[in-house]
Specification:
The protein has 253 residues and is α+β, with helices and mostly antiparallel strands. Helices cover 26% and strands 30% of the residues. The chain contains 7 helices and 10 strands. The protein has helices at residues 5-8, 13-28, 38-45, 49-61, 111-117, 163-173, 192-198, and strands at 65-68, 72-75, 80-83, 100-107, 125-134, 137-146, 180-189, 205-215, 218-228, 232-235. A hairpin with a 3-residue loop joins strand 1 and strand 2. The chain starts with a helix and ends in an 18-residue tail after the last strand. Mean pLDDT is 81; it is low at 1-6 and 239-253. Pfam families: GntR (PF00392), UTRA (PF07702). InterPro entries: Bact_HTH_transcr_reg, Chorismate_lyase_/UTRA_dom_sf, Tscrpt_reg_HTH_GntR, UTRA, WH-like_DNA-bd_sf, WH_DNA-bd_sf. This is GntR family transcriptional regulator.
Length: 253
């Protein structure tokens, strides 16, 4: 069988170096470890610094490396799997939920959220803010919108503000019989608030997962979770849980 023109084109030098560097990350470095400076790495592998930078940039795009101001280039933790499977549906805040409540406030949601919740556009709802951390770094931020009608007993509960109030709202949701939940995902860019929460620059790529929680045919809550695109990947299947992917076989999504 003849060789096509495409097959005869050699891999760029930086791509070959990326493969060598990836193997070195798996065998010589641990998560969070700082890599040697560019001059030392270029000398070790016998390449120009421009070639090295291209390889490092590709590994950063694949989530293998993380460049931090004032620190240097470090080995990134494994990507976190964001499951969109068809497993058991559960309310947020359950015993196996890895999200941490940050605070809760009553406020008017964006118009699109109000429409999805079928509340009046000037009607306030409970907005629970939660965060997700992996290996000591923020990887996701969530806003959970809960109409007052979904937790009617909440007003009679003496709960302080902040995370404690958020936990009370989540606990009240557990009392409802969840019919189903629907997920949608899209690629977006981090706004100012998300960028600050996720320790990224504004405009950085993010995955936005919207989850609609349905009770008796109506939307009882709506979650908008923003994930760092460089630390997460989508998983599909029936497991229903969020998986943490370890080991040298992890690939870019």
């Amino acid at each position: 069988m003849g060789t096509t023109q495409l097959e005869s084109v050699p891999e760029p030098k930086y791509w070959q170096l990326k493969t060598v560097l990836s193997e070195a990350l798996d065998s010589e470095f641990s998560v969070g470890e700082i890599l040697p400076n560019e001059r030392d790495l270029a000398a070790r592998f016998g390449v120009a610094r421009a070639t090295l930078r291209q390889a490092l940039e590709q590994l950063e795009l694949e989530g293998r490396l993380q460049r931090r101001r004032g620190v240097g280039t470090t080995v990134a933790p494994p990507r976190m799997g964001v499951s969109l499977g068809t497993g058991p549906h559960t309310w947020p805040g359950g015993s196996e939920d890895a999200w941490q409540p940050v605070d809760c406030a009553a406020a008017v949601p964006p118009a699109a959220v109000a429409d999805a919740l079928e509340t009046g556009r000037d009607e306030s709802v409970h907005i629970v803010r939660r965060s997700r951390v992996s290996h000591g770094r923020p990887v996701a931020a969530e806003l959970l919108y809960v109409p007052q009608a979904s937790v009617p007993e909440l007003s009679g509960i003496d709960a302080p503000s902040g995370a404690a109030r958020a936990r009370v709202v989540l606990r009240e949701l557990q009392r409802l019989e969840l019919e189903r939940q629907e997920n949608a995902v899209e690629l977006g860019s981090a706004g100012a608030d998300d960028a600050k929460e996720l320790d990224r620059l504004p405009g950085a790529p993010v995955l936005v997962v919207t989850t609609r929680f349905v009770v008796a045919g109506r939307t009882a809550a709506l979650s908008v979770a923003t994930y760092r695109a460089d630390t997460c990947r989508l998983t599909f299947g029936d497991s229903g849980g969020v998986e943490i992917h370890d080991g040298p076989q992890r690939q870019a999504s």
